[in-house]
Amino acid sequence: MTVNDRDIREVAIYTGLSLMSKGYSVSPLKLQKLLYYEQAWFMVMGGRCNTLFPDVPQAWVNGPVYPTIYHTYKGKTANMCDHLKLSDFTDRRVDEAMEEYHHRIALPDEYVELIESVINLYGAKTQNQLIFMTHSERPWAETRGDLPPFERSEREIPLDVMCDYYTERHRRNMSKR
Predict the structure, then answer these.
(1) Closest Cα partner for 10 from 107, 151, 77, 132?
(2) Which of 51, 44, 48 is nearest to 166 (CA)?
(3) Is residue 135 classed exposed, middle or buried when 0-12, 13-18 and 19+ CB atoms within 10 A define those classes?
């Protein structure tokens, strides 16, 4: 798998539908964090030159944000913490729509399984837990640098930093087994 023109919005729809199919809530803010972790672990497992989508997250106040996704979902709820509905993703049944987006994102099964693993690992967490997690990790914190906590930023979180950080985390976790 190499960098390609996979549309982050299609990956977001698949992710949102998968969360809903498992009974998890999904807000625009939570969706952002899941996409961030999907991208990070995709690079860990496939190598830095392999990305799930070409978009790069920015280090916003509430953690990593993909502007395309922010603009796609900002009008769907009263605020970014409210829950999205199935109709915000599709007018079809969850299982039908998931099958469609599985084909649209065109990933081999092992990469779909990776996305599902990330959703299973992080999906039950609240958006506040996910914000706390990203704030405590080097890629977001390093990119924010010395900015005051509530200062707006469009600084991009370097994919190399993401890949290095999560690869090292993966190595540490594997060595504990």
Answers:
(1) 107
(2) 44
(3) middle
Per residue in 67-117, pLDDT tens?
999 999 998 887 777 899 999 999 999 999 999 999 999 999 999 999 999
Q: What are phi and psi of 113, to 5 degrees?
A: -60, -35
Q: Would you call 124 helix, strand, or coil by DSSP?
A: coil
Secondary element (H or E) of residue 53: none
Q: How many CB atoms lie within 10 A of CB 69?
A: 21
Distance of CA 78 to the CA centre of its chain: 21
Total residues found in the chain within this entry: 177
The model's pTM is 0.94
Q: Within 13 Å, how many C-alpha atoms sit on residue 151's CB side?
A: 9
CA nearest neighbour of 35 among 3, 70, 75? 70
Beta strands in 53-108 (DSSP E): 58-60, 63-65
Residue 4: both structure tokens together = 């390609």
The H or E element containing residue 48 is: none
Q: What is the Cα 10 distance to its own chain's centre?
A: 12
CB contact at 8 A, 39 and 53:
yes
Model confidence over 60-79: pLDDT tens digits?
A: 999 999 999 999 999 888 77
